[in-house]
Amino acid sequence: MINFSQIEKSYPFLKNIANAAAVLQMEIYIVGGFVRDILLEREKKEIDFLVIGDGVAFAENLSKKIGVEKVTVFKNFGTAHFRYNDFDLEFVGARKESYDRSSRKPVVTNGSFFDDISRRDFTINTLALSLSLNKNNYGELIDTFGGLVDIEQKLLRTPLNPEETFSDDPLRIMRAFRFASQLNFTVSDEIKTAAKAMCERLKIVSQERITDEFLKILSSPKPSIGLKLLQETEVMKIIFPEVANLQGVDQRQDYHHKDVFYHTCKVVDNIAPNTDNIWLRFAALVHDIAKPQTKRFVENIGWTFHGHEDLGARIMKGIFTRLKLPFHQLEYIRKLVRLHLRPIALAKEEVTDSAIRRFIVEAGEDLHDLITLCRADITSKNMDKVSEYLANYERVMNRVLEVEEKDKLRAFQSPVRGEEIMRICNLKPSKKVGEIKTAIEDAILDGIIPNTYEDALSYLYQIKDQHL
Ligand code: CTP
After folding, report:
1. Any idea which of 136-140, 376-380, 441-445 has the lowest mean pLDDT?
2. Domains in the chain, start-ordered, CATH in brackets?
């Protein structure tokens, strides 16, 4: 249950808002995510207020009273917003709302508390906390649609029948799966059925809003919850067909390959605890994206996916364009997709320094992210295999460190410099001076002598006659 006196203590400014509403003889409620998140013990810095009457006029009046200068008004939506004490406060007048079916533009008329609450997305978001001093329900939690029980049961349901709720705003289909993923909730069967039946309607929603929800799913603690819901309801086919296409297993003779969609879900879940970098998580999602196009059956070998990493990198630009993803992340994603098999190759052979060096140069500053991706890509259930693969990557990383260390030394000069070599060996500037200097450097690189001036000098005396 909600402890209102605790809330009053934590957010003392709420009393000022309640008093201002009482002076104006208006009813006001805290609604939506703030109430839900208090119950879920999550912190939230945005508070939505529902005012019965003119929400914008109330916000303007209140802002003057509490000394806030800048109020942003969204006339079309009848909302007003300002920042106060580090919080984002949003005010809306109760409305009876319906949406134009061909766009997301609401057709709004004034409404009652019930009109407004019943047109919200999920029961867990319909809970309201009264701040109405003049209504004898100050501090009361108003639960019109059983949101409290749904929070307890970790269940997403719509207050009206889901067709109606989604028809008002199809983006709510994405929101359902996003909340399920963020909060680890299940969605009702009715929501799934309606989502499947109505997913085409997402086409009237702007790509930015869809992508925003999709990335929130990817940012959640266990993204596969949302990804599997998108897949199961066929919403994925509409919003990200390349990912939808990963599902399915082919069987020929005794060979079958693993289902790439479920493998991808595991990879994304594996990487989630290791990074909050949404783009590294996105790379995990798309690392095998071109497997369906490159799949071939080879007699006596089985299924192969040659070149899927290169093709995957190549098709990324089209995906970024369509999903309106930020182009400054494109190269990073392409690099990780293109290189995701390289560490395996480097672990297998007796690799040369130059192969390792090429890898270091190609991966550049993203080498650690690439290895994080490769580790997450291990989804075998056989623990012996998992340890073997992890040990392989460990070996590659050790080789990387080894070569980096050598190269660092190479970048240094011999501690005994050319002029001193010329003086001691009685030489004029010539090729010979360079040769002797390289011999000293090689001795340091090969670990024959330590990298100090004294050791280099005595080594010079030791070898100089061989070179003169
Ligand atoms: N809402 C809705 N339909 C939408 C968007 C929002 O009914 N498509 C309602 C919900 O009651 C929601 C409230 O408006 O709780 C505030 O919306 P928003 O700030 O987008 O979401 P929150 O629930 O606050 O959650 P979060 O900030 O995590 O997105």
Report:
1. 441-445
2. 4-152 (3.30.460.10), 281-407 (no CATH), 418-467 (no CATH)
pTM: 0.86
Q: How far is the CA of 303 from the centre of ligand 1 (A)?
A: 46
Q: Tokens at residue 260, please?
A: 């790439």
Average pLDDT over residues 393-410: 86
Using the mean position of ligand 1's atoms as its centre, give its distance from the Cα of residue 172 in Å: 9
Average pLDDT, the chain: 92
Alpha-carbon distance 314 to 334, whole Å? 7
d(CA 418, CA 127): 80
Confidence of residue 301 (pLDDT cuts 50, 70, 90): confident
Q: Which of 64, 61, 69, 121 is nearest to 93 (CA)?
A: 61
For residues 50 and 111, give the distance between their C-alpha atoms in angstroms, rounded to a whole number. 11
Q: Name the percent of the chain in helix, strand, coil, to the closest 5.
A: 60, 10, 30
Is the minimum distance from the CB of 171 to ligand 1 under 6 angstroms?
yes
Distance of CA 329 to the CA centre of its chain: 13
